[in-house]
Amino acid sequence: MDAILIGLAAFLVLGSVAALEMTHLLSAVITIGVVGMGLSILFLLLGAPDIAITQVVVEVIVVTVMIRAATRTGHEEVGRPRSVRTVLAGLGAALILVGVALAAFAALPAFGAPRRSPSDWYLAEALRETGAANVVTSIVLDFRGYDTLGEATVILVAIAGTLVIARHLAGDRMVDGDPPGASAATSLTSSGEEAPRA
Amino acid sequence: MRSDRDGLSVIVQVVARWILVLILVYGLGVAFFGHLTPGGGFAGGVVIACGFVLATLAFGGRTGPAAAFYRWVASLEALGAMTYLGMAALGWTAGHFMQAWTPRGDAFTLASAPFLVVVNLAILLKVGAGLFAGFMVLVLFDRSAGSLHDGKGEA
Amino acid sequence: MTFYALTFALFGVGLYGLLAKRNILKKVLGLIILDHAINLLLVAVGYRAGRGAPIRLPGDDTTAFVLGSVDPLPQALVLTSIVIGLGVTMLLVAMVVRLHQRYGTLDVDQMDRLKG
């Protein structure tokens, strides 16, 4: 079992390196999609089925959006390769980070070994306190409901930011109510505002 | 020239109509039973958003079920957020903010925790509508495609 | 420990992609890889060898359930993190398309004109 986990993790690392080094942008985006699917299998094997479902679907949406970006903006990698110094600096930073992180983690208990945490209380009391058989749901929505409130706020801000940038993408023509898609979008952010701008 | 706003061929549209129903039902099921089986509001919400992504790809950004739902997407997202906050505020009647205040049914049934069912659906609305809005905005608003799309005004 | 090392290596790959690539779409790919690495690390910290998912079935004895489940707390954190990562990726893609519209290129070294 451990061999499968380590093999999948190695596949993720190699796939990510391949995705970053490809010159054809469309292929790079599709490779990232494959890496995400492998990550979802890894989540399932690590005992997190909710996260596996979410990761598969999120990866599909990310790949769709990135394919759109890649085809709208040109397919090939641009220009001459980066200078050797920059590449080595990037690699050096990454290696130092990996080394320091490993040294820090060596002080913690080993991978897969049990240790005490509030989760023991959550696992024992979730059914009695909240009536839910899925302990992860009871944690997300009941024991730590404030975190979910914060997540809802972050999603709202991210989508609002996307809308603001996309208005600049469309230019000024959308405020005069030309195509039907435009008026649907103005109603998204300025509901009730009917008078056209002069 | 057919722009890619118009969606894909008839075969894809016929199949997509059926698959879209299945995807929406699956998403709702995952969120409804989130307190008993793996899933919950977040998984259900992203599945619903992905179903609408399929509808947008198959039917185009202006026609079809995705474009028809797009009008309500802001209201649905706000409804989801307000429902979550409302359920949390009503927890004050039972003790403190965000306490699960509804009466419980038998364990391992749908009615074992109605608070969690309602909150799961609220999260589904919030996440699904929000992500669908973000995706539609990236599809609809683009004039960098250049000369393929002239004729009517571009937005 | 090898598993943690591979997760940190994934983080390093994402960091390398973010820093050393000229194409801005590759930088966004680097951020996506960083997200994957952090989510994987969180779930891996919660993993207990040989145990199953924290879903309680009818007829489960409480002590046996507690001893037979992985840690559910990191999973709760990662669940929201994945959805937030998707929202932020959509925001970044909107920025990339806007930058391409403004400058005509995806090369970061050529995006040097300040005036809008």
The oligomeric status of these chains comes to heterotrimer
Q: What proportion of the residues of chain A form beta strands (DSSP E)?
A: under 5%
Question: How many individual domains of chain A?
Answer: 2
Low-confidence stretches of chain C: none
Give the fraction of residues assigned to helices of chain A.
over 70%
Largest interface: A-C, 92 and 82 residues
Instruction: Tell me, rounded to a whole number, the average pLDDT of chain A.
Output: 79
| Series of H and E elements of chain A | HHHHHHHH
Strand content of chain C: under 5%
CATH class descriptor of chain C: Mainly Alpha
Q: What radius of gyration of chain A results from the CA coordinates?
A: 23 Å
SSE blueprint and pairings:
The complex is a heterotrimer of chains A (198), B (155) and C (116).
Chain A: H1 2-21, H2 25-45, H3 49-72, H4 84-105, H5 119-130, H6 135-143, H7 145-170, H8 180-189
Chain B: H1 10-32, H2 41-59, H3 64-69, H4 73-90, H5 114-140
Helix pairs in contact in B: 1-2, 2-5, 4-5
Chain C: H1 2-20, H2 24-45, H3 62-67, H4 72-103
Description:
The complex is a heterotrimer of chains A (about 200), B (about 160) and C (about 120). Chain A has 8 helices and no strands. Chain A has helices spanning about 1-20, 25-45, 50-70, 85-105, 120-130, 135-145, 145-170, 180-190. Chain A starts with a helix and ends in a 9-residue tail after the last helix. Helices cover about 75% and strands about 0% of the residues of chain A. Chain A is mainly alpha-helical and about 200 residues long. Chain B is an all-alpha fold. Helices cover about 60% and strands about 0% of the residues of chain B. Residues about 145-155 of chain B have low confidence and may be disordered. Chain C has about 120 residues and is mainly alpha-helical. Chain C has one domain (about 1-110): Helix Hairpins, CATH 1.10.287.3510. The termini of chain C are far apart. The mean pLDDT of chain C is about 85. Chains in contact: A-B, A-C, B-C.
